[in-house]
Structures are given as structure tokens and as C-alpha cells.
Design goal:
This protein is mostly helical. The chain contains nine helices and no strands. It has helices spanning 5-28, 44-62, 64-74, 81-105, 115-148, 154-168, 185-205, 210-227, 232-250.
Length: 264
């Protein structure tokens, strides 16, 4: 594990998380054993899987004391007001862009939600995102991306993190009760990789702030409930377009104006 920490991080993250999702997938496919409500408690595993995997590997690498210090450092707010505004506003702007592109191209939009149900939908989306998305970012960006950037350019590291982040979601596409099961995996795969460039740009531009990318992630999912997902095709187009612009403006090496964030 000490020789290949990123590899073992992903093995653990996938195993822990998929142990939570696969019973739900089996239940949705008609396996009666897993339809018991008690199995739903396992959904905590995908929420904490990336963080738990990162902490386990970090403990093996540097011990408990240094792991505790590393974990606390991830949550220090060390970014300017400008980047706070970016983390809050950009996901909303991109969701509006999704809907605009979908309308221009005549793509189907998500079903409208009755106004009396909207507040409850957005609140539940926010709570679910708040309880799960920050723990993803500890693993994807706080551990994996920073370590990969120690050996690779930001571009290469982002491709790796983005591809594995997309594959991590694979069981959900077979969970028939989940909206993602109605979307083509290939489009989701491409879109997630492109979205990863936005996360890397924000992470590196804030000197490795997990709080900044966690805030972006939480609000991205919350705004998705508020604005509607528009169209999977439109979302992919927007994400790819933004990724291309970021790469063109900030370059492949650091994907930011500052040095890329790397593990010490």
C-alpha cells in the first residue's frame, strides 16, 4: 500500500462505496432479499467511502498523528472572497447554460416540478449533497488529485481522477429507481471527465482548498434540483466547452495561474 497509495485508495473507495450501492441495484432489479428497508442503511457507504479510503491509506503512509493533521488542514478556509463567489455562482451559471443550450438545440428538458413541491425538493437535494459531497472531495481532490499532480501535469491527473470518478458512479446506472439510470453512461462518462477540469481549476486556484471544491459540489447538485438538469446532452456540451476554455486559458501543466496543488 505504501508503494502504490493512489491505487489502493481507489480499490478501497470502490469496494466500500459499491457495497452500499449494489444491494440497491439488486433490489431495483427484482432481487427480493435486498428489498428489506434495513439494507438502505448501507447507503452511508458511498457517502463516506472516498474519505474512509483516503484516511485508511494515509494512516498506513504517515501514521495517526500526521493523518489527523492532514485531515484538519483540508478544512481550513484559505481562499479569497473572489473564489468564494466563484464556488457559489459558477455552478448556477452552468446549470442555466445547460437549459439554454437544450432549448437552442431543441433537446428535451427535465419535467417541471410543481411550485409547492419545489422547496421540499431543493431542501432535500441540499441536505443529501451536504451529507455526501464533501466526503467525496476529501478523496477525489484532497487525496488522489494532489498525489497524482506530484507526478503528472494537472491535465493528466485530471483525466485519471475524472475517468475513475465517472466509473465510480457505474452501479447507479443499473439502479432502476435512480434518475441516472435513464441516462447514457457514455455521455455521463465524458461529462464527468470534463467537469473534473472545472474542479481541478478551482482546487489548484485556491491552493488546494477542499472546502472550495466541496462547496461547489454541494451547490452544483442543489442548483441541479432548482434549475432542472436540462438535458444530459446539453450538460455534456457545456462541461466539455468549459473544460476546453480552461485548458486553453490556463494551460495543461497547472490548469491555474498558480502552481498546481500537490501532496507533500
Amino acid at each position: 500500500m505504501k508503494k502504490r497509495p493512489v491505487f489502493w485508495f481507489y480499490v478501497l473507495a470502490f469496494v466500500i462505496s459499491w457495497l452500499g450501492w449494489l444491494p440497491m441495484v439488486a433490489a431495483s432489479q427484482g432481487v427480493s432479499l435486498f428489498k428489506h428497508p434495513a439494507f438502505q442503511i448501507l447507503l452511508i457507504l458511498p457517502a463516506i467511502g472516498p474519505t474512509l479510503a483516503a484516511v485508511v491509506v494515509q494512516r498506513v503512509l504517515v501514521g495517526k498523528a500526521e493523518t489527523d493533521s492532514w485531515f484538519r488542514s483540508l478544512w481550513r478556509w484559505k481562499v479569497s472572497v473572489l473564489w468564494l463567489v466563484v464556488a457559489i455562482a459558477l455552478p448556477a451559471i452552468l446549470h442555466l447554460a445547460d437549459n439554454l443550450v437544450a432549448r437552442i438545440l431543441g433537446l428535451p428538458l427535465s419535467l417541471e416540478v410543481a411550485s409547492e413541491k419545489m422547496a421540499g425538493l431543493v431542501l432535500s437535494a441540499f441536505v443529501i449533497a451536504l451529507l455526501s459531497n464533501p466526503w467525496e472531495e476529501v478523496g477525489w481532490r484532497g487525496f488522489a488529485l494532489s498525489r497524482l499532480q506530484a507526478r503528472h501535469t494537472a491535465f493528466t491527473a485530471t483525466l485519471i481522477v475524472g475517468a475513475l470518478w465517472a466509473l465510480w458512479h457505474l452501479p447507479i446506472y443499473f439502479w432502476t429507481d435512480n434518475p441516472m439510470s435513464q441516462s447514457p453512461f457514455v455521455l455521463g462518462f465524458i461529462s464527468t471527465i470534463a467537469l473534473s477540469f472545472i474542479y481541478t481549476w478551482l482546487y489548484n486556484s485556491t491552493q488546494g482548498s477542499v472546502l472550495a471544491v466541496a462547496l461547489y459540489h454541494v451547490l452544483d447538485n442543489t442548483y441541479g434540483a432548482l434549475c432542472g438538469s436540462g438535458s444530459v446532452v446539453a450538460r455534456c456540451i457545456v462541461n466539455v466547452g468549459v473544460a476546453v476554455v480552461l485548458i486553453g486559458v490556463f494551460g495543461m501543466t497547472n490548469l491555474s495561474r498558480t502552481e498546481r496543488a500537490r501532496a507533500g
